[in-house]
Amino acid sequence: MKLAFLFHPVKDLQESQRYYEGLGMTEAWREGNQVLGMTMKDCEVQLMIEEDEHELGPGGVFLVDSVDDFYDEHESKLDFIKSPCTIPPGRYAIYRDGTGNPIRIIDFSNKD
Q1: Are 27 and 38 within 8 A, CB to CB?
Q2: Which residue, among 38, 39, 66, 48, has the nearest Cα to 10 in the 3D structure?
């Protein structure tokens, strides 16, 4: 696992984008009008802002080789609250750690 993104749910993507750009961040990628990745100078981890998953709150998004393999290997040991699903860049799932924090995992199996 490698930390790829810090996820922040937002109410207004455009307003949030302007806010983070004011802090010196720049747009790295976008999926429609709902999710946006932003880069920070001298930092490999990107900020992902999205108009979704407000009830789960912010947290890390970890890159794994295969979400499906990770799920199959850890399903009985971890509290998965979102089973693997397809998203534009690949596969995605969420589980909770021992204190209830959401841990999001992603793979890039659909990237060119």
Answers
A1: yes
A2: 48
